[in-house]
Amino acid sequence: MLPGGYSSVLQARNRDEFRDEVVRFTHRLGFETVSAVTLVEHGLRQSNVIAVDNTTAEYADSYVEPNSGRRDPVLRHCRSKTVPLIWDQATYVDQGAGDLWEHQARFGYRTGIAMALHLPEGRHFMLGVDRDQPLPQDPNELQRLVADLQLFAVHAQDTAMRLLVPQQQQPDRPNLTPRELEALRWTMDGKTAWEVGALLGISERTAVLHVNNAMHKLGCVNKHQAVLKALRLGLIA
How many helices (H) and strands (E) in the chain? Predict the structure, then answer.
């Protein structure tokens, strides 16, 4: 079973419920504001961007500089990397964008954590949480926050793609082999590749191959996303 704090976002039935779950998790994590952005590329310079957030109206109305997005070091990081970014004033100053931080700090955007998932077929999901207070000094506590956000992002992106991306832009239902489905079912139960191999009477290497093939067919970047997508598509139960 998935922990309720993560799995509840999978039950969202519409955009409003999705937003409520994202904001609720953000507050539970100890942050005030959040931005969850889904982007689907359709070709050169053509993309569909859907944002779900609780950005204050005052900040949204004042953020009008056209080049701000191209200069923002957090956005630049998320455009090309999947490693979470822990940011504060120094992040902006080091990149020559201290004025951007000064502006957003007036509205409570002083520190935060941001990350992106870059999926096949030109699909991307970015999740960032922000707050007015400093981040924890304890490395273990900070790492826990990053890990929690990463795990939540895996669940949230699946729901975002289901609810926010038009049906015609969704990938077709993949055709997984019986072995690939069995490997995903046991992975869902928390079994390691060695355990899956033992249960199916195959080698650990072959078990890994089945899971990797399923990931590729489902258009996912890790086995957890593959399990979630297979569940949503009704491929496994």
Answer: 12, 5
Which residue in this structure is represented by tokens 């779950």?
A: 21
Residue 237 lies in a domain: no
Average pLDDT in the chain: 87
Q: Are the C-beta atoms of 98 and 89 separated by less than 8 Å?
A: yes
Count Cβ atoms below 10 Å from residue 95 Cβ, excluding itself: 16
At residue 141, does pLDDT exceed 80?
yes
Same domain, 42 and 122: yes
What is the C-alpha end-to-end distance of the chain, expressed in Å?
Answer: 12
d(CA 22, CA 44): 31
Burial (CB count within 10 angstroms: exposed 0-12, middle 13-18, buried 19+), residue 118: middle
pTM: 0.71
Cβ–Cβ under 8 Å, residues 129 and 31: yes
* 139: Cβ contacts below 8 Å, ≥ 6 apart: none
Q: What is the pLDDT of residues 58-69, one digit of tens each?
A: 887 766 565 677
At residue 123's C-alpha, the angle toward residues 117 and 125, to 5°, is 35
CATH of the domain at 22: 3.30.450.80
Residue where the block lists tokens 């086995």 = 223
Flag whether 8 is in a domain. Answer: yes
Q: In this model, does residue 142 exceed pLDDT 90?
A: yes
- Whether the pLDDT of residue 1 is over 50: the answer is no
**15-33: per-residue pLDDT in tens?**
999 999 999 999 999 999 9
